[in-house]
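Hi everyone, sorry if this is the wrong subforum. Our group has a chain we'd like a structural model of before ordering constructs, and none of us has done structure prediction before. Sequence below.
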Amino acid sequence: MASKYPVEIWAGLECTVNRVGEEYFDQLERNGHARRLDDLELFAQLGIKKIRYPVLWERIAPNGLENADWSWADERLGRLRELGITPIVGLVHHGSGPRDTSLVDPEFPRKLAQFARAVAERYPWVTHYTPINEPLTTARFSGMYGHWYPHGRDNLTFARALFGQCQAIALSMRAIREINPNALLVQTEDLGKTYSTPKLTYQAGLENERRWLSLDLLCGYITPIHPMWGYLLYCGLSAEELKVACQSVYCPPDIIGINHYVTSERFLDEHLENYPAWTHGGNGWDKYADVDAVRVCAESVAGAYTLLKEAWERYNLPLAVTEVHLNCTREEQLRWLYEVWNAAQELQNEGADIRAITAWSLLGSYDWNSLVTRSVGYYESGVFDLRSPNPRPTAIAKLVRDLATGNQPNHPLLATPGWWHRPQRLLYPAVSCDNSTRELNSKLSPTPLHPTPPLVIVGAKGTLGQAFARLCELRGITYRLLTRQEMDITNPESVNAVLDELKPWAVVNAAGYVRVDDAEREPHICLKINTEGAAILATACAQHHAALLTFSSDLVFNGAVTNPYIESDNAAPLNVYGCSKALAEKLVLQAYPSSLVIRTSAFFGPWDEYNFVTIALRELSAGNTFVAAEDAVVSPTYVPDLVHVSLDLLIDGESGLWHLANKSAIAWADLARLAAKQAGVSISSLVALPTEELGLIAPRPTYSVLGSDRGQLMPCLDTAMSRYFDDRG
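Answer:
Right subforum, don't worry. Here is the predicted structure as tokens:
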């Protein structure tokens, strides 16, 4: 029998305030939501009715309740109420409270409960609370692994941190319910699963029992006959202490919130030689690698459906998936969210009480690739992308809006299974994991009823076309790479015939005349391909309702400035090639205003032998003279970065002019020096000359650096250069 509650789509805001040593890592400061009230309007436009929202102890009352500053929470909770969005208020999110306490402070539970009471008194209308997010995960990271304060690395610190948090949850909810008896506890926890080789079955079994500890404690399941009772005694708690502690934490959740990530499921293997050193660890008896199960298990892993079903059968309490996020390319983010949604729907149809799934990281997150133990600015975009002047809605925003309003999502890329289902996921020798429910993965994995519409890529013989095909293969994007013989963009009949046959959802124009000096001698050919062809393609795409991505160049500018060019700057080309591109931009956007036109610059990449960086390294390595301009300043573009970001923008439905180049301003000669330095190649045969002495036919700007007022989406040049060498092998 299906549940009486329809599955809702909730949203959440990554709001971690964790402590490393004496430094606090505050996601709300990093993502700017601490300063932007208008974000709430954007969230409301998604159609959501509930949001996990922070009223964090460390932020509101870092110097004691008597000095609390409620102004931020007053304004934002008040606005959420006006917008008709129910906040699920979080009080501690991977944190440990103000500086005068910690997770193992005996006073921590009482102090948090005092804060919780103050919150409830100030906002008596709030009905949903998560006093502490993921207490088991936080106890592991803070008490067992040493990542976060108080940096414990032993079982006893872990156990005390876990019990302290669970007691704090129970006391906080009692305090809140004295003000609002109807307040609900939405208790979140990351629910993974562990697999192993036969030798390590004992360790996997321990971890699979331990993953339930916080919820079992709150539900009153921990008694002397519980499988974890002996483990907790082993951790160092006395039997009497354990008995008293278990009684003090009883507070069954009203809704259990399951947080699940692709990497939440782990595999343990004693064959260390099969895995990199950073995965190696152990338990004091055996040494083993601890790796993402999805990267090694031949049959795939349990996934959201199985884990939710396990939680439902164990507790028979209402469930929600309270974090759904994937750090990946846009189509994979869409696939992950939609797969979890389908899993929730499937379970609800089978009678489980599944209340919602939650689009997490509305504004993305920072430095979670290092478990926020250092601040280097690694950003993962979410429902909105913060790399634009204002939060920019991505394709995920449309998917969330569709799910929230009852519309059927229809993006063609949803029909392909995510990378976690595809064979390429296996990075290590495949092993068989004991997963008796793996057939359910194929049940929930998309199986299109009709052929998936392709992405058409024009320009099969060019560097850019080849790169698009390579990365579409990697990303699971169905494509057709076409030669000029298969589709001639200068011939309207040829273009329309192909679009009629293939019915693509989008077209990438990676074709073009690129010989800048030759264009001065044969302008008619350059204009026919770059300008007329692009305009013909735009007209046809508009008629066939296919999105269009086409490329322009930094050479539409004349170099009369010394600041990076932005999209709104006027084009003033110096040569025929630049003229062909400037006119193409105008005609394309006139014919099809929804087109995405990307200006870019100075390609280099790992997969062709004819780009500047590769040629420079080849000539310098051989001791041959290599000549480069010392005064022409550009912003080089790493082709894989360009393709990935372009595809993301295309999937997001972006349009108009965008500038994409790796963040830099460097002369050609200095680019050769940078590449040579990283490669360990001598630059003794490098000759740097002024542009005017190079004998070039076409005039070129001496400054054509690309900036952007729409979004800085590309990584910096230094990281791109490092990846160039990694990707070339």
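For your construct planning: The chain has a mean pLDDT of 94. Residues 155-179 form the longest helix (25 residues).
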